Amino acid sequence: MPELQPLVRALPKIPLGVSDWNKLADNHKNYVVVDKTAKLAELAQNDTVFIARPRRMGKTTLCSMLYELFAHGKESFKGQAVYDLWPETDVYPVIRLSFNVFSGDDVSKFEESLKDALLNAFSQAGFPEVESFQKNLTLTGFLGKFGRIALQHKLVIIIDEWDYPLFRCLHDEDRLNVVKSVLRDFYAWLRALPNVHFMLLTGIMRYRETSLFSGQDIQDLSMVPYFADLLGYTQD
Hints:
Layout: H1 5-10, H2 21-24, H3 40-43, E1 48-52, H4 59-72, E2 94-98, H5 107-124, H6 139-144, H7 147-152, E3 155-160, H8 164-167, H9 173-192, E4 196-203, E5 219-220
Parallel strand pairs: 1-4, 1-5, 2-3, 3-4
């Protein structure tokens, strides 16, 4: 049936494994994209948000969309619901981290990879001065070096798969406890950062199920029905 070949080529493609918004929105890719952006504007009105979902439910895509909106504005969302709803007129330095690339097998490498990731994230957000920060400092001392940047700029923080390093070493209690200690210092620093305009954390495990967080300043939307259709599939 050679006459069907042009039609087959024209059919939209299911973007399996594609989570980058710019690739999904590229008309030349001809991907099927379901517009689930209407509530992104409301989500961004919160200060610090946490959402837990199983893997392959769209957490990384959500992070990618919010990164694009905060860092570059809404132009790549023309035709999507959020284009007319997005309230921000400014763009912000976005510190974006994905914890699923961190090694949890060796504690010293884990802390080093965390430092490298922070340097890279701040550099990409427009702060090349961080490249002079010394990584041989203690973690607390190293994190303290970013304080001046945070004081001078409104930052957006996006962290995907916050709990992945913990899952990497669940089989070894000693390593697990050390990784938890590193993450506890990191998240204590993160929550104390001044001038944070918006913060999103995603993962599999509810943050209240660990001892890494304390206090009530994180809004957990994991079980809020109103935001359920931001991630995963619905009947509609």
